[in-house]
Design goal:
This protein is mainly beta and 532 residues long. It folds into two domains: 35-356, Neuraminidase; 367-531, Jelly Rolls (Sandwich). Helices cover 5% and strands 44% of the residues. It contains one helix and 38 strands. The chain has one helix spanning 2-25; strands at 31-37, 45-52, 58-65, 75-82, 90-96, 103-111, 117-126, 129-137, 148-150, 160-161, 167-169, 175-181, 190-196, 204-205, 223-229, 235-240, 247-251, 262-263, 275-278, 285-289, 299-304, 312-318, 324-331, 334-341, 344-351, 367-370, 380-382, 388-391, 402-413, 420-426, 435-441, 446-449, 458-460, 467-474, 479-484, 492-495, 506-510, 519-531. The strands form eight sheets. Strands 27-28-37-30-31-32-33 form a seven-stranded antiparallel beta sheet, with no helix packed on it. A six-stranded antiparallel beta sheet has the order 26-38-29-34-35-36, with no helix packed on it. Strands 10, 11, 12, 13 and 14 form a five-stranded antiparallel beta sheet that branches. Strand 35 (479-484) and strand 36 form a beta hairpin. The protein is globular and about 75 Å long.
Length: 532
């Protein structure tokens, strides 16, 4: 009897081992905390950086403002320590007092290969005078040596600044700091790097990176850059622009000279800085930025497995406010992110594996699932132009302030010279807040257009295959975006109200059995959600 149950016990042990392995493979969810809350006395705390000390503790440096919280109100650089990997922070102390006539902030730390910690920061003496300074610590941040000022050449404006968390050291030992000059007296902002080959004692300047290589008429510039060393030895710079995207440039000589700017493919961005770092466990690049053309919300992440040529695994790190001035610090299996947001300085401790997951929805889909064969009947109506549409559920779809519709549709053109057409509609009771997106299919390509004459605006491959289209709207901002097959790059962005005159609750327009269009459409799947 005992022998007869031994195999069961053996398989039970195997099962327990499998379950134990699955448990070990699981990783903890992100942990978010307002590590330095905003108060009436100190309304702004931000522009931070984190460095790991030799004993394992973490040092957090951040800017603390007095009153007002403006870029030109008084601020100083404070420090806090964590002994548990960033879960808790203690011992708030002064690192650098306000050394300027106006303010002191934008701290960055770097562990030097030769020993010690290098700190950089900005000092403002007026709204047209900003300088970059460096200090070094040989006792793990307890004390800091004499400051060294980088002096911009006299032909520049003298308003020379940086962002927090912008220092790197190359494999050659060269130290690079991404910086910029301009913004004042009507001068276009120019990005560049300053570099040191003697451990930070002396600094030299690279050539300028100018956004006018992309847009000769641009009057804003290439702002708030960041740099990272690539596996092939080149250095990549990313810059903030007012063009609706991040731009990048490359250096083949360690940051001494830079090529012309080009747009970062697949990434949209408001006029807001981005941060970039390498994930130690995988070697992939991690980008933290605002995935929006118009606002600093949400805060997003993306992964690049090809050294920044393309980006994937776009995720929402934080949402529901304005987020900016981020830092990225890998610590063991965690990525520590700091950023300025609602309530003060936020610290997000996230397992690196989280950034590789597919995006999870901030709210559930109200309807999700395949669609049965659609036959024109009571749910179908014919409009004045001969197109047919299916209505959704009026009790569910009410066109909230933030809405999403996702459909999988196959369009087939029956005649070489004709196209099949479908139309996605989304909106609320007010006609000026609605939007209609036409999808056209021909022998060679689908196309998307806002035009009622159905002139194509964007070509899409594989017209005879099914595609998933996703519309995101923001009724308050009166904007809409259309994505194809889960792409992070909008196929099309336009204001709501581009097409007017449709009633509430129309989701999908199709044209089966409409002969003059020479094609047919097949709705395979649909889902939608509303967010207040």
């Amino acid at each position: 009897m005992i022998d007869s149950i031994r195999p069961c016990g053996f398989f039970l042990l195997i099962l327990l081992g499998v379950l134990r392995g699955e448990a070990e493979d699981a990783f903890p969810p992100p942990e978010r905390q307002v590590v330095v809350p905003a108060t009436s006395e100190h309304p702004r705390n931000g522009e931070a950086d984190v460095i790991r000390l030799q004993g394992g503790d973490l040092l957090l440096g951040y800017g603390r403002w007095q009153k007002g919280g403006d870029d030109f109100n008084a601020a100083e650089i404070r420090g806090r320590t964590s002994r548990d990997g960033g879960k808790t922070w203690v011992e708030d102390r002064l690192l650098v007092p306000n050394e300027g006539k106006v303010t002191t902030f934008e701290v960055g730390f770097l562990r030097l290969a030769g020993g010690g910690i290098l700190m950089c920061y900005c000092v403002k003496d007026s709204k047209e005078d900003c300088s970059i300074f460096f200090r070094k610590s040989l006792d793990e941040g307890r004390t800091w040596g004499e400051r060294i000022r980088y002096a911009i050449p006299p032909e520049y404006t003298g308003y020379t600044a940086i962002n927090n968390n912008r220092l790197i050291q190359l494999k050659t030992g060269r130290i690079l700091l991404a910086a910029y000059d301009g913004w004042v007296r009507g001068r276009v902002i120019l990005s560049f790097t300053v570099y040191s080959d003697d451990g930070g004692k002396t600094w030299q300047k690279s050539n300028d990176v100018d956004v006018r290589a992309l847009d000769p008429k641009n009057t804003y510039g290439a702002d708030e850059p960041a740099v990272i060393e690539l596996n092939d030895g080149r250095v990549m710079m990313i810059v903030r622009t007012d063009q609706g995207y991040i731009a990048k440039a490359y250096s083949a000589d360690g940051g001494a000279t830079w090529g012309k700017l080009i747009p970062v493919r697949g990434i949209v961005s408001p006029n807001s800085p981005a941060s970039i770092a390498r994930i130690p466990q995988t070697g992939d690049l991690l980008l933290i930025w605002n995935n929006s053309r118009t606002q600093r919300n949400p805060l997003n992440s993306a992964i690049s497995k090809d050294e920044g040529d393309s980006w994937q695994n776009v995720r929402i790190v934080d949402r529901g406010g304005s987020f900016c001035y981020t830092s990225i610090t890998p610590v063991d299996d965690r990525i520590l992110l700091t950023y300025y947001g609602p309530g003060g300085l936020i610290l997000n401790r996230t397992d690196y594996r989280w950034f590789y997951e597919k995006e999870t929805l901030a709210s559930p889909w109200l309807f999700e699932g395949p669609v049965k064969d659609i036959v024109p009947g009571t749910s179908w109506r014919l409009d004045k132009r001969g197109a047919m549409y299916i209505q959704d559920l009026p009790d569910v779809w009410q066109g909230s302030s933030d809405s999403e519709v996702e459909v999988t549709v196959r369009l087939r053109s029956l005649l070489p010279e004709k196209r099949a057409t479908a139309m996605l509609w989304i909106g609320d009771e007010k006609p000026e807040s609605s939007v209609a997106l036409y999808l056209r299919a021909g022998i060679e390509a689908d196309a998307v257009s806002f035009s009622e004459t159905m002139e194509p605006a964007y070509s899409l491959p594989d017209a005879r295959e099914s595609h998933t289209y996703r519309i995101l709207t923001n009724h308050k901002a009166k904007t809409a975006r259309l994505y194809l097959d889960g792409s992070t790059q909008p196929v099309l962005s336009a204001p709501l109200g581009a097409v007017l005159g449709y009633d509430l609750n129309r989701l999908l327009f199709g044209d089966p059995n409409v002969d003059f269009l020479g094609g047919e459409s097949e709705l395979l799947k649909i889902r939608w959600k509303n967010e207040e």
